[in-house]
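Progress note, project year one: complex with NAP.
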Amino acid sequence: MTAQIISGTEIAKQIRQELKQEIAGLRDKYNLIPGLATVLVGDDPASQVYVGSKARTCEALGVYSERHDLPAETSEQKLLALIDRLNKDTRIHGILVQLPLPKHISEANVLYAIDPDKDVDGFHPVNVGRMMIGQPNYLPCTPHGIQELLFRSGVKTEGAEVVVVGRSNIVGKPIANILLQKKAGANATVTVCHTATRDITFHTRRADILIVAAGKPKAITADMVKEGAVVIDVGVNRIGKTAEGKAILCGDVDFDAVKEKASAITPVPGGVGPMTIVMLMLNTVKATKLAVGLA
Ligand code: NAP
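Model obtained:
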């Protein structure tokens, strides 16, 4: 069997189109322009790339965006003061603090300081709790993107055996939680594996849907996958550079071997990655509507 390739690039393009129309409608009907503020502390090159692409996406979709790029030595107090200001700014509906932060700043203090109504990353404990009890305002972007990829590719999650490899707060735990909910596009039986799992292969081979977010290049080999499974590879690993100095990326799944066994699989790049940013835009639009009672 050669797997259907689930293209995050294509699905993200469709969602961008839908959002563009919705944003134009908000502007024309209600004179409402969604606003996103990004906050970056320090000069980590990967973070700069992520923040830059968020700003470009905002511009392409008609979202007002503000970049706050601060030097690495910025104090926590100064950062908290900026967040307080953005919380009160009515042009700003969503605030995104690019992680990781420098070591002298408490990530928890900063994330908790964001108004939960503007927490478009979905990392504030209020939003994590709401997700947990099935009443989310904002779902975290990467796991929400995975759910949307499955849904729009026609993959049935209801009653499916889903195995998640990885239990981080930004991918593994939330995707497990989202797919566990008694809702359409979820309602799965979910198992979560991690480094203390005794026999990972025992679990992965049972999976109808295998979601891998371990951050280990090609950790999932073909013998670990059930014939006909749907495989979602969240991993983004930089395994070298091209002659032109561009990063060579690979996922957590041995794509070439696993695609011969799976029924559907996401590539890296071009799978989960492009979905994360459109789900951020979707959350920003939702925040805008919530702010004026339209959602
Ligand atoms: P993380 O915080 O490092 O967590 C990795 C998780 O995987 C941990 O729970 C760890 O277990 C588990 N793990 C690691 N090696 C394992 C193994 N051999 N077997 C079983 N479990 C293993 O990583 P993350 O932030 O979730 O990110 C995971 C990957 O997704 C990374 O490559 C990251 O770059 C990528 N990512 C992509 C996007 C996107 O938009 N495409 C977004 C976020 C992350 P323990 O808890 O026991 O340590």
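The chain has two domains: 31-115, 141-272.
The mean pLDDT is 97.
No further modelling is planned for this target in the current period.
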